[in-house]
Amino acid sequence: MTTTTEMPTPIETFRMEVRNWLEANCPTSMRQPIKSEKDLYWGGRNGTFANEDQKAWFEAMYEKGWIVPHWPKEYGGGGLGKEENKIVLQEMARLGCRKPITSFGIWMLGPALLKFGSEEQKRHYLPEITAGKIRWCQGYSEPNAGSDLASLATSAVDMGDHYVVNGQKVWTSYADNADWIFCLVRTNKEAKHGGISFLLIDMATQGVSTSPIKLISGKSPFCETFFDNVKVPKENLVGELNRGWTIAKYLLTHEREMIGGIGETDVKKPLHQVAIESLGTENGTLNDPILRPDIARWSIDKMAYDITIKRTMDEVKAGQSLGAASSFFKYYGTELNKAKYELMLAMGGYNGAAWEGEEFNYGQLARQFCRTKGNSIEGGTSEVQLNIVAKRILGLPSK
Amino acid sequence: MTTTTEMPTPIETFRMEVRNWLEANCPTSMRQPIKSEKDLYWGGRNGTFANEDQKAWFEAMYEKGWIVPHWPKEYGGGGLGKEENKIVLQEMARLGCRKPITSFGIWMLGPALLKFGSEEQKRHYLPEITAGKIRWCQGYSEPNAGSDLASLATSAVDMGDHYVVNGQKVWTSYADNADWIFCLVRTNKEAKHGGISFLLIDMATQGVSTSPIKLISGKSPFCETFFDNVKVPKENLVGELNRGWTIAKYLLTHEREMIGGIGETDVKKPLHQVAIESLGTENGTLNDPILRPDIARWSIDKMAYDITIKRTMDEVKAGQSLGAASSFFKYYGTELNKAKYELMLAMGGYNGAAWEGEEFNYGQLARQFCRTKGNSIEGGTSEVQLNIVAKRILGLPSK
Amino acid sequence: MALILNEEQQMLKTSAKEFLKERAPVEALRKLRDERSETGFDRQMWNEMAEMGWACLTISESYGGLDFGYVGLGQILEETGRTLTASPLISNVLLGTTAINLAASNTQKEALLPIIAEGKMLVTLALDESTRHNPIQINTTASKEGDSYVLNGKKVMVLDGHVTDKFVVAAKTENGVSLFLVDAKSDGISIQRVIMMDSRNSATVQFENVKISASSLLGEEGQGAATIEKILDIARIGLSAEMVGSMTEAFERTVAYLKERKQFGVPIGSFQALQHRAAQMFCEIELCKSLVLKSLQAIDANEENLPILASMTKAKVSETLQLVSNEGVQMFGGIGMTDDEEIGFFLKRARVAQQTFGDANYHIDRFAKLSGY
Amino acid sequence: MALILNEEQQMLKTSAKEFLKERAPVEALRKLRDERSETGFDRQMWNEMAEMGWACLTISESYGGLDFGYVGLGQILEETGRTLTASPLISNVLLGTTAINLAASNTQKEALLPIIAEGKMLVTLALDESTRHNPIQINTTASKEGDSYVLNGKKVMVLDGHVTDKFVVAAKTENGVSLFLVDAKSDGISIQRVIMMDSRNSATVQFENVKISASSLLGEEGQGAATIEKILDIARIGLSAEMVGSMTEAFERTVAYLKERKQFGVPIGSFQALQHRAAQMFCEIELCKSLVLKSLQAIDANEENLPILASMTKAKVSETLQLVSNEGVQMFGGIGMTDDEEIGFFLKRARVAQQTFGDANYHIDRFAKLSGY
Description:
The complex is a heterotetramer, with two copies of chain A and two copies of chain C. By secondary structure, chain A is α+β, with helices and mostly antiparallel strands. Chain A is 43% helix and 13% strand. Chain A has helices spanning 10-25, 52-64, 82-95, 104-116, 119-130, 244-260, 271-279, 291-317, 325-348, 350-353, 364-372, 382-393; strands at 136-139, 155-158, 162-169, 180-186, 196-202, 208-212, 223-233, 237-238, 281-282, 285-286. In chain A, a hairpin with a 3-residue loop joins strand 2 (155-158) and strand 3. The longest helix of chain A is centred in the last third of the chain and has 27 residues, at 291-317. Chain C is an alpha+beta fold. Chain C folds into three domains: 7-122, Orthogonal Bundle (Butyryl-Coa Dehydrogenase, subunit A, domain 1), CATH 1.10.540.10; 124-223, Butyryl-CoA Dehydrogenase, subunit A, domain 2 (Beta Barrel); 225-370, Up-down Bundle (Butyryl-CoA Dehydrogenase, subunit A, domain 3). In chain C, strand 6 and strand 7 (201-213) form a beta hairpin. In chain C, helix 1 (7-23) packs parallel to helix 4. The interface between C and D is small, with 5 and 5 residues.
C-alpha cells in the first residue's frame, strides 16, 4: 500500500468512461433482472420492442458500437481489444444492465463466421446481426441423428449454380420467429463426417416450414423445421465444401459451456436456504432428517463444482489447460441441476407436484423440474460427454 | 382342523426317524456353531480329525449313507428321494448339526460327474468323495483369463495314451491341501469355447506344484497351481473332448448361487442392531444422523433381497422361473455384502480401522471388510453378471 | 405363505390387463388432459370397472362385496399403473372403502357399503393439511354442539375431492383425533380442484362451520389416529402396487427403445454403459415386486408388522420409480422430452405418486423409527 | 486469489515428488510393515525430510522456520499420498506444530519451535477418547494441585503416539477444556502402540496421575476448545491433501491397468461401462482437487469460513477416496485382491484416513449445522 496519489492508468480511465456512459445511457428499467420472455429483445424482420426503454437502450448501444464490443468495426462491432471488451461486460454486470439484444447470431453464428467465413460473408451477415435486422436460428439435430449428430441426412444437392435442400431438422429453437437458419447439411453421402457442409438459408425461401414442439414441461421455443426442395445460392456455403463438421464441433464446444452453466440464474437463493424456509428447523436441524444429508451433499458438490470452474479458468489464464474440460463441466453441471430440481420437488411436496392454479404459481416448479430433464440430453447427452472424458482426457481406448 | 387321531403319513414317520437318529448319533459338540477353520473336517489323504466327536460324527453319518443323502447308493450316497433328502437337511438344521465333512467334491465335482461323467468315473470317484478319502480342488481361473475364463491357456496335449498338461491356474482354493484337482484345459487352440476340456488330475503326479496367495485381508486358502509337463491318463477326461465349457458353465451357476448367499452367516446380528449398540440412540434416533438413512436404506434393500430370493424359490416351485436369476442374485447379494461392511467399518470407527492387537480382536473387522471386496470379483465379477442380466434377461443386443 | 399369486388372482390380473389395454391406455389419460375433462377420469369406464367388481374387491360378501382381498386389488392397481389410468381406485377403494371397513359401525356399513360396492357412491379421505404428507399434524376441529359436531379447517391433496360424494374427514375432537363421514354437498364446504403434474385430480377442501350429525362419527371419538395409520399403510401398499406397474411398463418401454433406436450404426442398447444401467434397474424392480407382494399378503393376513412393511415398500418403490422414470426419459433422449412421446407421462405420474402418502424420505425415517433407531 | 500454485509451490511439489519416488515408494511401506518396523516410519528418511525443510514449512522465520505456509505443506502431503509414505508429517507437522503455533506463548515457542523445525523433536496431539472422532467429548481431567496439574484419562488414536517426544493433551480443567504440553516420558504415562489397517502408527495413551507443571499449559486455561477446532480444521484440510494424492495415484494406476489388461481380446478400458465409471471418478477427483487448494489457501489467508471449508473438503474427499479405492480394487479384479498388488494398500490407507479427524458422515453433519440446518 502506498499513500501517494497515483495517476490512473489508461485502462482505469477507460473503465470510468464506460461506467459513466452506461450510467447516462442505460435506462433504469433496463437494469432490472429479466422477469419473463418479454424482457428480451430478439430483433429480426418481425422484431418489436416491448417498450420505449428497450428501444432506447438497444439504439444507444448500437450507436456506441457495443452490441458486440469486440467484433471489428467493419463487421458492425465496437473494435475493442480483449481487455477493453471485458471492462465493458464487467461494468454492464456491475450496473445490472440487460443485454441490448438476445441473439443466436452473436452467440453462435458470429464466432463461426469470424473463424470460417469469407470476407464477403463477414461484411454481409455480421453487421445485420449487430443491427438486429436478422434473427438467426440453428439447424443441427435431426430425428434420426441425436447423439450421433454426424449421421445427419438433410441433403444439399449441387445443381450447378445453387443447392437444393431436402430434409428435416429438430430442436431448432425459435425457428418459427427466425429469419435465417444456419444448417449442417449432407453434401456427400459416401463420407460420414467428411460429407457435411455448413449452409446459411433464408427461411423466407419457398419450401421452408416450421412446426413448434411441445415438451413435457409444456410449450417450448423448439421447432421442427422442414426443407422441401429449397433452393439455396452457392455463396451461402460457409467454409469449404464437406468441411462443415469442423465448424460444427467448434460451435458445439461453445454451446456445451453455455448449457453447463444452466440453472445458475433461475433460482438465486441457495438450496439450503430454500430447505430451511420450506421445511423449517428444530434445534438448528432441518425438519427432514433424510433429506438433510442429500441437501448437504448437493450443496458441497455445487460449491466444489463452482470452485472447480474458477480453478480451471485460473489455470487457463496461467497458460495451463485441461483438454476436454467443457465435457466435464457440461456433464457435471447438468446432472447437478437435475439433482437440484429433484430436491426442490421433494421439498415442495404437494406444491411441487401441482401443475395448474394461481395458488401453485401455475405449476412453475413442476414445469421447471420437467424442463431440467432435458439438460443432460441437449447439447450432447451426458453419455456422450462421459465418452469424451473417457477417451480424450483419460485416453481410454475404443474397441 | 379335526380332532380325530390321524395316522402319521410315511413322510412324517421318516421325519421322526431321522430326528431320533440324529439326536442319538450327533455328539453335542457337533451341534455347536462353527467357530474356526478347525471345526471343519475336510477329509483327504492327509485329513485328520480335530477330535473324537468329529470322527464319531463323520463315521456315523458315513455308515448311515447320509454324507450325501440323495446320491445313489452305488456311488456312495444314501439313495434318498428329493423329499427325504430335504427332510434330513431340515432336521440337521433344526438340531444345528455341523456338516460331517466340507468338500468341494460333494459341492462341485459331484454334480458335474453325475451329469457328465461316465459310469466308470462315477463308480470310481464319487464313493471316494463320500468316504472322505480324496479331497478335491478346482482349477479354472488363470492369470490372463479372469472374467474371460474361456481364454484360458493351460494346455493338455494329446500324446496318444495320455495328455501332457502345462500351464498355471490361480485361485485354486486349498490346492495346497488337496489330493486331486478338476481342471479346465485347452485341448484345441483354434476354437475358443469349443477347445476346452474338463480334466481330473492327481496332484501327486510329478510336475504339479502349488504356492499360497496372500490377500489384502491377510492369509487365504487360495493358491497358485503350476503344471510342468504333467502326464494325465486319458480316462481322466470328463465328458467329451472339447466340450468342457458346458460342464464349466453348469458348475459356475452353482458357484454363483453359493457366493450370492455370502455373508449370511458371519454376522448374525441385524445391522441396525449393531448400529444401535455401537453408536447409541437419543430420543429413539441413532446418534449418527447421516449414517442413519444409509443403514435404513441398506436394511430395506437387504430384506427386499431376501424376500426376492424367497419369491423366486416359490416361483420355481410353482413351475415359473426367472432365466438368469442367479446372475442377479450374485450381483446384488455381493454388492449388498460389500456395502454392509462399509457401514460396519463406518460404525466401528477407529476399532474398525485397527489391524492388530487383542483389544481390537486382531483386526477381524478390517480383515473381513477387505475380504468382502473380493465378493464382486470371484465367481464372475459384478460386471459379468450385469452383462448376463442385460443380455439373457433383458435381451439387449451385442454390438 | 408362498410369494406367488393364486389362480384366481392371476386371472383377475390378466382380465384387468386386457380391459385396461382396450379401455384406458395412456392415450386415454392424454385425452382427458387435453379435453380438460371435468371429472378427471372417465365415468363410463368407472361404471364398467364397478360392473366387473373392482369397486367391491375389499368389501365383505355380507355387504355385497367380493371379499377378494388386497392381493387381488393390488393386481388391478399394478395394471392401472402400467396404463396410467386415472380412476377412483385410489381415492375411493384404497382410502374411502378401507376407512369404512376399518372404522364404521355395522349400521353405517349396511347403509354405505352396498352402494359403494356398486360403484354408485364415491368416498375419499380428507386428511393432510400441510404441504408435505404429515398425518399427525391435524388442526381441523370438530366441536361438539349438542347432538352435532361443527367442522372447521382446511384439507389439501384430497384425491378426487371435487367429484367425491363423501369425505372421511380427520378432525380434532376433545379427546384426540376422530373420523367423520361428511357429505360433500354439506353447507360450508368449498372445494377447489387442483390438477396435478400427472393430470390427475386432487383438491383443496375448506370446511367452514360445517354442521354434521353425531351419527357421522366413524368409530369411537378420539380413537381415529390408529385407524388413520392403518388406512394409510394399506393405501401406501396399494399405491406401491400401482407404482410397480408404472415402473415395469416404463422400464419395458425403455428396454424396447434401446433395442430399436440406432445411433452410430448400432442399437443404443448395445452400449455397455446403458446395458449395465438397465440391468441394475431390473434388479431394483425385482426387489420392488417382492416387497409389494409380501406387503399385500400382509394386509390380507392382518399381520402385525404392516407399518414397517408399508414404509419399506413405499420407500423402496418411490426411489426405484424415481430412478426408472428418470432413466426412461434420459434413454429416450430428445424424443423423451417431447409431449408426443408417452414416457414423460410416467415421469410425471412418478413424482406425484412419490409424494402421495409420504415420500421415500418420510418412509425411510419412519422405517428407522419403527426399527428403534 | 487465483486457484493455482505459484512458482515456488510448484517447485516444492516437484522436488517432493522426486524425493518420495526415490526414497519412499509404496514398496517402502510394505517393507516397514513386513519387517515390523518399531518406529513405523523410516527415521533416516524423516531426517532427510527435515533437512529439506519439510518439518518447518509452517514455522515462522523468527523461530527458525521457512514460513512457507500450508499451501506448500499441502503439496508435500499430496505427494506423500501418492506414495503412501508413512512419516510424522501428519502427527508432528499438521497437529503438533500447528497446536504450538496457535496456542503457545512466545517463551514456549522459543523453546520448542527451533528444535521441531530441525526435525529433532516430535509432538503429536492426544485428543480423541471414544471410538469415533468426537473432539467435544473429553473426560480426561487436569486438576490443579498447587503449582501443578495432575492428568488422568485415556486417549485413543494418538498418531505416532509410541514414538513421539511430547503430547499436546486436551483435558478438562475447572473452567473448560485446556491444552497441555506433556513429555511422553513423564511418570504415569503408559503407551500402547496400535498398528492400523494402513500399517501406520497410532497409540492408546493412558495418563494416570501424571504430574505436570503449570508452565505446560498451552494458551489460557479453559480456552482450549476453539484452538482444538482450529488445529483440527487445519489437519482435516492437510490430510485431505494427502488423500487427494492417494486418490489421484490410485486412479491413474487404475486407468493404466484398464488400458493394459486384456479380456475377450480387447483392453478392458474399451468397455463403455468402465469408461463411464472412470470418467465419473475423474470429475469427482477434479472437484476434490479444487476444494483442497481452496481450503489450503484459506488457511494461509486466515479466512473466517475455514470450518465450513474444512468440513466440505474432508467430507467430499473422504467419499471420493472411498469410491476411487473401491473401484480400483474392483477394476484390478482378482489381482487387486492380492497383497502383491499395491492397489490394496490404497484401499487400506483410504479407510484409515477417512476415519481420521472425522469421516464423511461427521463432516456432512457438521457442514449442515454450520450452514444453519
